[in-house]
Write a structure and sequence with these properties.
Helix content: 55-70%
Strand order of the largest sheet: 1-2
Strand content: 5-15%
Number of strands: 2
Oligomer: single chain
Number of helices: 2
Length: 90
């Protein structure tokens, strides 16, 4: 059965997209923090140990803004181009 996705709920998409970005920001921040701790003291530079806190916050905010923009663009463009065609099986 083929169906078309004509509209995306902005609230649900932005919530999921922001949480995905927060989690990926935390993982990236963790990697940067561990790298910063493992580096010799005379070579330490860059974001450092604060990355594990800053990256998720920044990624979450950017995810929220990007989610609003992407959902708005999708909902606007489906009026002219039609929705994404999905096929489901019973």
């Amino acid at each position: 059965m083929k169906m078309k996705l004509k509209k995306i709920s902005m609230k649900s998409f932005v919530l999921i997209f922001s949480v995905i970005n927060v989690v990926s920001g935390f993982i990236l921040g963790l990697v940067v923090t561990i790298s910063s701790i493992a580096a010799p003291a005379d070579q330490a530079s860059g974001p450092g140990v604060w990355s594990v806190l800053v990256f998720p916050i920044v990624n979450g905010i950017l995810g929220l803004l990007a989610g609003v923009f992407l959902t708005g663009m999708y909902n606007l463009l489906t009026k002219f181009l039609g929705g994404i065609e999905l096929e489901f099986e019973n």
